[in-house]
């Protein structure tokens, strides 16, 4: 009876974790003109969420329940182990992406505040940094991720030029 109750608890956790994972994979809704800082903020938020979830999964309360179910050879643990692994992968991806995007952070200010001429001086270094990310990041080197990042950088450059034209 105790095992059944604990299995029910784990089934609820599995359902909640699946929901979190599913939501994290959904398309992001962003403003059409969002800049590269929005990309960094997205991954920082995601990293925080998954790290909190990992902390909860690693808590002594959860470990005790999982240990009891392991002793009882519960079938619910197969799903649990898979989700635990998926959460770890998602947390690692977010952490890695934040680390790589922080290397671009020094370019975001000049993109947003410089004149078009000054802004262009930063583009070669920025593109080299993006190339480095593409070549070395285990998670950020997909066309989808790169397209999103380059779109946001382009948006920022366009907004900077618009501001320059309107003020000039």
TrEMBL record:
Pfam families: DHC_N1. GO terms for cellular component: axonemal dynein complex. GO terms for molecular function: dynein intermediate chain binding; dynein light intermediate chain binding. One of its GO terms (biological process) is microtubule-based movement. Residues 3-166 form the Dynein heavy chain tail domain. InterPro entries: DHC, Dynein_heavy_tail. This is Dynein heavy chain 8, axonemal.
């Amino acid at each position: 009876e105790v095992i059944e109750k604990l299995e029910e608890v784990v089934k609820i956790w599995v359902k909640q974790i699946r929901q979190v994972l599913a939501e994290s994979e959904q398309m992001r809704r962003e403003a059409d003109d969002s800049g590269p800082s929005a990309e960094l903020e997205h991954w920082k938020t995601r990293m925080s969420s998954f790290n909190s979830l990992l902390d909860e999964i690693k808590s002594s309360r959860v470990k005790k329940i999982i240990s009891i179910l392991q002793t009882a050879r519960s079938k619910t643990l197969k799903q649990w182990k898979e989700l635990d692994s998926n959460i770890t992968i998602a947390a690692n991806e977010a952490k890695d992406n934040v680390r790589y995007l922080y290397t671009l952070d020094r370019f975001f200010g000049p993109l947003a505040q410089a004149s078009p001429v000054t802004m262009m001086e930063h583009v070669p270094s920025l593109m080299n940094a993006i190339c480095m990310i593409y070549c070395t990041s285990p998670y950020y080197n997909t066309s989808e991720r790169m397209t999103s990042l380059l779109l946001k950088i382009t948006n920022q450059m366009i907004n900077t030029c618009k501001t320059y034209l309107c003020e000039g």
